[in-house]
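Translate sequence into structure tokens.
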Amino acid sequence: MFKFVLIASLLVAIAFAAPVSRDETEAERLEREELEAYQNKNAQYAFNSKVDDKINDGQITRTEEREGGVVRGSYSYFDGFVQRTVEYIADDQGYRVLKDEMKDVGDGPQFNPEGQADVEGSLIGKYSIKLDKDDEDKHYKDIHA
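Result follows.
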């Protein structure tokens, strides 16, 4: 009986603690839309990242920036077979690719156990890793640059 009362009490407490959902008024909707329009008009950000992997013979780069309602960016990769670069824009006319280049570069990646992978990004800084040949469980070791 005690368990039943305890569970029932908890369910009642949860029910009363739950937020009450209500429809948005017209004035609230207009205020929210005005705030969203202001935020979109004034939004700004920029970031970049790069991985130069001389262990597995690959490269990846990406950049993007936003000024108001316009987002511009690019990405590129190299995998031992192809190198591809794409530049794009997204604005009031939608998402569009401005440039898309791809060329054959070889017969595949060349593994280099003595290589180093360098990682860099506007949000993460820089670091490098190498193969850790002394530890069978861990394949890479951090060698902060």
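Note: The mean pLDDT is 87.
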